[in-house]
Prior knowledge:
The longest helix has 12 residues, at 207-218. This protein has helices at residues 44-51, 62-69, 80-88, 111-119, 135-140, 207-218; strands at residues 4-11, 57-61, 90-94, 106-109, 126-129, 146-152, 172-179, 185-191. It is globular and about 70 Å long. It has an eight-stranded mixed beta sheet with strand order 4-3-2-5-1-6-8-7. By secondary structure, the chain is an alpha/beta fold. The chain is 24% helix and 22% strand.
Amino acid sequence: xxxxxxxxxxxxxxxxxxxxxxxxxxxxxxxxxxxxxxxxxxxxxxxxxxxxxxxxxxxxxxxxxxxxxxxxxxxxxxxxxxxxxxxxxxxxxxxxxxxxxxxxxxxxxxxxxxxxxxxxxxxxxxxxxxxxxxxxxxxxxxxxxxxxxxxxxxxxxxxxxxxxxxxxxxxxxxxxxxxxxxxxxxxxxxxxxxxxxxxxxxxxxxxxxxxxxxxxxxxxx
Length: 221
């Protein structure tokens, strides 16, 4: 069974759109592309080094795949080694499109059922990069084993979010955390079942609370 880890750069308000550059993904009028590099923190690089220590296989949504495929195979200079490593890695793309996947070692995955079958196959562990649309259905299906969130001290206000509409409720268990000198926080989480519920230890019995409840029921609160 392959382990599936989701690793994401996120702002304090949960936005994960276009961390790498201004032209990466401006959809929806997003104009803060490249926000990660404007902040930076020494706590992040060692985490990335562990995540991208071969062997690994990438699990990507179609748009993230297109972004990567137009960039990493053609990069040179000090990042050429990373481009070569990503090209050599398996790349599994969750897509309904029949457009070709031309980047070497890329193959199509047929929805959530395909991801489940992929996890049960032989091969290196799976790593999600970008691909915000994958998180809600994969979490709902119980297919994500671990989340690695690299949170940066910035509020972006708008943009695609990690926990977007359709994300199921659930508890998470903290596995590890690190805090960088510039305020970046790296946390590792694993799913921990349903949200725990408790009875309120000191419920209000006041007439004011009863009136508030009545107004909520009738929709006038």
